[in-house]
Specification:
214 residues; alpha+beta; Phosphatase 2c, domain 1; 18% helix; globular
Amino acid sequence: MTGSLAVAPRPLIDWGISARTYEGEIESGDAYVVAPFPGGVLVAVIDGLGHGAEAATAARAAVATLQEHAEEPVIDLLPRCHEALRKTRGAALSLASFQAVTGTMTWLGVGNVEGALFRVDRTARHPRDSLMLRGGVVGYRLPPLRAASHAVFAGDMLTFATDGIAGGFHAHAPLGRSPQDMADEIQLRYGKKTDDALVLVATYLGDAFRGAPR
């Protein structure tokens, strides 16, 4: 018997999300995007200014824009979001694009959504890289932009967190934990009760183009 079997492409990341809405509010101003595209995946976390319905409106506008244009370079996605959010109160936004063929992650952030990349290779020169955030508000004032790229290997982990998560959440490497377990733990240990809070953790799984991970 002859025939063919379609095999789904291996996902580039495993990820987990933990979110909490500010007490008394129905909607959260914090949102996220995990959007696969041919040869890669876009990961983003958005924090609409303030909290409540208006913050949620701003976050939804960013989510819709990022999902529609996920395959574009991050340096182009920020201006797209800026235009889409002009009639909203604006947002902080950090995003990272993983590319399978090159085995790289390119990231960029405006506002105060913190990001950190933890390397599975404990002997690496930089076991942890922190996202260099640019001051500004997407939708109101966009600063000059410059994205940064890093090689990534299977087991490397990315964390994004809004300012509803207390600083210092990335003091301990999450390596070896499942992304969902780590996201839940960060929320439990560092989540504030004075704002919406969202944390996303993603593990890079490697890909066939790069060969065996280190």
